[in-house]
Structure prediction request, 194 residues.
Amino acid sequence: MPSIFENPELEPEELAARLLVTPTALDDLTLADAMKVVAYMRPQRIAAGTVFIQEGETRRNDYMLLILEGDIAVESDLPGVNDSMVVNIIGPGHLIGEMGLLDGAPRSATCTASTDIAAAVLSRTGLMRLLKDHPRVGSKLLLAISKRLADRLRETTRKLKTFAQMNKAMQQELEVVMNNRTGAPGLYQKARKP
Prediction:
């Protein structure tokens, strides 16, 4: 597949700025704001098959990437087993690593380039320079990232509630099965009595 950079309709900086203001990235920024942010980013190419973020990694965690081209598999380790699960496939216009940009804590997922990747990287150093040079734009960027993280936290909370409901229903069904096997009165038999 030809690269968007081989015959670009837009300059790479404008393309990155347009992708930065999409709903999958930070749509609270204006295009003019995004152009200023992009000036503090650096381009990065990642070859297909490369694991470039490792869950639990504790070094070089202070940056985020805007995907310009290609697809990335996001995986999480499964607790208690030596395996992982793909939790998302993301492509152009998506951001990854925003939490690391803010706090530099260990990475929460593993990211592998499914295809060749073109990305724009914003490091914490770049963010600090942006905040110094353009405090209004830097503040809007931080607010947009915070809003995005809050949205994800709400979505995760919703999923956890759904999981808890499913878990409770499964436990009740298991209790019914076990009570039927043993003949002991349980929820199921109690519910059937007139």
